[in-house]
Write a structure and sequence with these properties.
It is a single chain. Among the domains are: 81 residues, CD59, CATH 2.10.60; 60 residues. 15% of the residues lie in helices and 29% in strands.
Length: 206
């Protein structure tokens, strides 16, 4: 038999669960293996709500420092930023395994300093036009005089890349769907969608 106090307890648990789900975030994380530095990863992955970014530092049998990165279930976080359930195996020696919450946050884990501040932003950058706006999973550190660009070309396909200020601004006025911006990973969608039938899935955050 359910008592009044039991019902109140169940309601409190339900509310807490709803709050937890509402606060869940999808992080965009670096992903790859055997990189000499975290900044050398040029691919990202859009993690699920219960996942966080991770970075593993290890030493190879040749004495080289290498890194693995990707998404990991948040239950693997122990104390602080430390993570267990490592992907590093013998004969490599694990030095550091850290998890973090935030886009590209692994770039500054395990004692690394993150991306340089004297360059342009870190942007989505695909070397060829794509058919859906969320198909670009490669990134690049832009030059200081460049912005993150996103626009639909004359063939109706998306171009996502670092662009000089002048070219980016011109795309904003000539393309049916474009964005020019200078913050991290900001070029995943357009600011002025004037065309119809633009093939975007709308699954990635902007």
């Amino acid at each position: 038999m359910f008592t009044k106090s039991t019902n109140i307890l169940y309601n409190m648990v339900y509310v807490c669960a709803c709050i937890s789900i509402a606060n869940a975030a999808n992080y965009t994380c670096l992903v790859g293996n055997d990189a000499p530095h975290p900044q050398d990863f040029n691919r990202v992955i859009f993690c699920r709500p219960h996942e966080v970014c991770y970075l593993e530092e290890y030493v190879t049998p040749a004495g080289l420092i290498r890194y693995n990165a990707g998404c990991k279930n948040e239950i693997h976080i122990t104390q602080g930023n430390e993570c267990h359930d490592t992907t590093v195996s013998s004969p490599n020696i694990l030095v550091c395994s850290h998890c973090c919450r935030g886009d590209l946050c692994a770039s500054s884990m395990c004692g690394n300093t993150g991306y340089p501040i004297n360059t342009g932003p870190v942007c989505y950058s695909c070397p060829y036009p794509i058919d859906q706006s969320d198909l670009c999973d490669t990134i690049r550190i832009c030059n200081r005089n460049e912005k993150c660009g996103f626009f639909v070309n004359q063939d109706g396909r998306f171009e996502v890349k670092c662009m000089p200020d002048s070219s980016c601004n011109q795309a904003m006025t000539t393309s049916s769907c474009a964005r020019c911006c200078d913050s991290q990973l900001c070029n995943s969608a357009c600011d002025n969608p004037n065309a119809t039938n633009i093939p975007t899935s709308g699954t990635r955050k902007t």
